[in-house]
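Let's do one together. I've listed all components of the complex below, 454 residues spread over two lines.
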Amino acid sequence: MLARRIIPCLDVRDGRVVKGVQFRNHEDVGGIVDLALRYAAEGADELVFYDITASVDDRTVSPDWVSKVSRSIDIPFSVAGGIKTVEAAGARLASGADKISINSPALARPELINELCDAYGRQCVVVGIDTFEENGTYRVKSHTGDPDKTRETGRKTLDWAAEAAERGAGEIVLNCMNQDGVRKGYDIKQLSAVREVCAVPLIASGGAGATEHFEDVFKQANVDGALAASVFHKSVIAIPDLKRDLKARGIEIRL
Amino acid sequence: MSLVIVDTGVANLSSVKFAFDRLGVDATISDNAETITQAERVILPGVGAAPYAMKRINAKGLTPVLQSLTQPVMGICLGMQLIFETLEEGGSPVKGLGLVPGTITELDTKNQPSPHMGWNTLTKRSDDILLEGINDNDYAYFVHSFAAPVSNITLASSEYGEKFSAIVRHKNVYGCQFHPERSSRVGAKILENFLKVPA
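Okay, and this is what the predicted structure of the assembly comes out as:
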């Protein structure tokens, strides 16, 4: 049976892993390769690296840490941040990334999703969506790496998730901004709504604070994977304990 | 041990090379006919769309080279699909390398999300040196939408909507639908076993 995935997310800024609360006040939590090795050894199913400065700085070259990570670990990982062209995506894939994840550039030019799918196949194209709830409606924001540059996109989350999959995304990562970094649980209601319209694998992001939150999001929102950062970086939850507990609660988990 | 990773022009080559680095084998990435023919082991990697990959392999003149290999060969992911006779991807069927018998078809996920992406369990169907140390319900990392139906060349199967071939073997040619280079201990063991397959 296909296992539900536990995915530590490493926000990268200036070559270090950082974490902020609701995208603000970033603090240094470690070196990229050190943390990647630690999580792989602990049983993480996959890793996501978000280069959170990239989109706002217009950087497109493949950072040298991508190949260092690929050389070091034997689990899949995706790389996000600043990928605006087929060439920039290709550079990261050539460096050994398994998937590339696009967010703001896909909103600016949705055809990019089609182009990446045509060039490399949908299996390596992930679309990240930063979504927030306002008066009961889910809306998409872009350029969330820097609070001063964050923009409203005028897009509704459910429409954008469906369009992204239709255009060739092989996976959607839904980051629920209202929940991010506050550890009150995933946004089950929103994730369930997106699950309904999304025919590709869906990854929950934002809000993990306890084992129950993972159990709830797998059982209630039926997501394929759950992404978390601070609870892992700060050792609030140990991945081996989490995976053992989830399996004991009847969830398909790779131990 | 000389091992060549075939440069098909479409694959994620470095992650496969790094996996062999971790096993202490310095793999060569090449699209040179002589280098490929003379290698003791040949890996055919691949990601993306089958029609495009076959076009690239044909453009490089590698089809007859790959068809003439007698040493142990392993196709990985899309590379596994390319070793079959026919690939039903992209409208009209595409002719594969034909190193193993059979047809690649779209995986029927039965309304589950597609592509099939993530860690899934292996079920052994036949003994082989490649499976030494691998047990039923060991997990491997998959990401694909097309697959080889289970047949008499299936060494191990997996299931997502329907059963399909996770590992096949026909004569000197192996295929892994999952990514051994990204399948942690299980994948490393399979690659290590591949190095031990008698020539």
